[in-house]
Amino acid sequence: MKKIYTPIVILAILFAASITSCSKSNDAPLEGKATVQFVNASQAGSINFYADGNMVYENLGYPSQSSTTNIMSAGDHSFSVSAWRSTAIIGSGNYTLSGNNFYSVFLIDSLTHPKIVPIVSDPNASPIDNDGKLRIFNFSPNSPSVDIKVTNQSFITVSDFILRNRTFNDQGADAEKLSFKDMVAGPYRIEVYTAGTNNLLFSHDITIIKARNYTLYLAGSFGTSNLILGSVTHN
């Protein structure tokens, strides 16, 4: 089946605390601080991210994640985005960040209907036997209810990794959907089906590297050539 590559737009946040500095994306959080990573999952092109009114990342292309993280104080903060080379804010929201946590801020959905969705991450959760960890979100705004299966190189479904009836941005209502699953390092295929059927809608190959944690996300529009499976590496 032909793979389809392309994304979506909404703001989702998996983060960390007032901005004090930037660090490499694999640095551990400072004691009592929050660590924030930014992700552009919007087809709108390059964007700027702001925290508390200050630009913290400029010209972040699509789809990509920031190469550095921002260290912020625990407490209440505002986040917003603008298109690159523009100061007009297209999406914003206020959030409370906890110390000693990682967050990722995603722009998702569309520029005409941007949303900011807070999602806490746990990139320091140690993979078993030095293997990797994986979780998958659905950020495609016109997505039907889908089942997501992970198969190994022999196309055998990985035990206990069938995500059923996933809908757009549904992780916000179910904490279980935020958790990572342990994965043996190696190649896999992500398959997306119409829920409850064998109708394959989309597939994409990935490779899990030892001691890495991954968030994958469906982005773009179903039924078009711009549907993609984006990837965020947390460590």
Produce a short descriptive summary.
By secondary structure, the chain is mainly beta.
Query: Structural class of the helices, strands and pairings?
Result: mainly beta
* CATH domain class name of the largest domain: Mainly Beta
- Biggest β-sheet description: 8 strands, mixed
Mean pLDDT: 81
Strand content: over 45%
Oligomer: single chain
Q: State the domain count.
A: 2
Helix residue percentage: under 10%
From N to C, what is the helix and strand string?
EEEEEEEEEEEEEEEEEEEE
* Inertia-based shape: globular
Tell me the span between the first and last alpha carbons: 31 Å
Question: What labels would you give this structure?
Answer:
eight-stranded mixed β-sheet, mainly beta, Immunoglobulin-like, disordered N terminus, 55% strand, 235 residues
Structure, explained:
By secondary structure, this protein is mostly beta strands. It has two domains: 11-121, Sandwich (Immunoglobulin-like), CATH 2.60.40; 128-233, Immunoglobulin-like (Sandwich), CATH 2.60.40. 0% of the residues lie in helices and 55% in strands. The chain has no helices and 20 strands. The strands form four sheets. Strands 1, 2, 3, 6, 7, 10, 11 and 12 form an eight-stranded mixed β-sheet that branches. Strands 5-4-8-9 form a four-stranded antiparallel β-sheet, with no helix packed on it. Strand 14 (146-152) and strand 15 (157-166) form a beta hairpin. The chain is globular. The two termini are 31 Å apart. Mean pLDDT is 81; it is low at 1-11 and 13-21.
